[in-house]
């Protein structure tokens, strides 16, 4: 999801409802999924909201995902929660700088809560390949940012590192170099056993994975631990931006994954659909379930999927996946149960 949506999210702040504090139930995530997917999850937004207000204030510009939502979603079978946050809020002065203890505390709290439930926490700097709105060209600085960040989570085997959300409009070789620097920085921090999700240019779209040049370029990434998963995003509206309740057709999901699936198979690689969504209507539900069935058929290369988006501040957002009353939680989730 793009800046536009995040800014919209920030606008919704005025209608924010205080998060329930309690942890309703004792639940823990199952690692072995009947659906065949290794990862089934939700993006839990909040800490990346208000991304034009840096550092921003907790409760005004941004918030953290809610513990009780994690419990609810774990009880529904989800085992992966992607936690978007801002690079600048964690390490504010420069990428080679030190962490902000206040923001770090929030990040550590949600990551440790998720992983204490046996679920995976995807640490997702939601920065689109930018730092303070400028394309990151300091590859060594980016590596340093990742070394600092990965050190914090190096001993938590349930953490997954996501190099950056949705690089776009960048030189392809720079996207390659930033991903490689992130991998090297994470491994240099002593985080040698965790999976790393790498993302591509063009908003990491699955439908453009090969045509954009991501395939040819990112095929050459090297991980000494050999634990890279290619994170692709796919929305099912006409421009693939994830801004409409309409889906192009009932088959659009599987159609948009075909070229990427062929690329994965030809090259012996694995992917995760790190963001997907569709409107709460029959055509989108057909497109989504068709896509997920196709992914199950190809579960040798597709490791799972994550819905966009959960989090307490979405209000009546078209893809809202927050219990108890948001749009997709009530209108779409019941149809997705076979794929969890
Ligand atoms: C650290 O983070 C807190 C909470 O986001 C913020 O209020 C504070 O201004 C930050 N400090 C710096 C130096 O960025
Ligand atoms: C999570 O939300 C962010 C923005 O708020 C979006 O960019 C991203 O695509 C979402 N991911 C998923 C899996 O929905």
From TrEMBL:
Domain Glycoside hydrolase family positions: 43-309
GO MF terms, alphabetically ordered: cellulase activity
EC number in record: 3.2.1.4
Pfam families per record: Cellulase (PF00150)
Keywords from the named record: Glycosidase, Hydrolase, Signal
Catalytic activity: Endohydrolysis of (1->4)-beta-D-glucosidic linkages in cellulose, lichenin and cereal beta-D-glucans
Domain of life of the organism encoding this protein: Eukaryota
Enzyme type, top EC level: hydrolase
Signal peptide region: 1-18
A biological process from GO: glucan catabolic process
InterPro entries attached to this UniProt entry: GH, Glyco_hydro_5
Keyword Hydrolase attached: yes
PANTHER family: ENDO-BETA-1,4-GLUCANASE A (PTHR34142), GLYCOSIDE HYDROLASE FAMILY 5 DOMAIN-CONTAINING PROTEIN (PTHR34142:SF1)
Similarity remark: Belongs to the glycosyl hydrolase 5 (cellulase A) family.
Protein name stated in the entry: cellulase
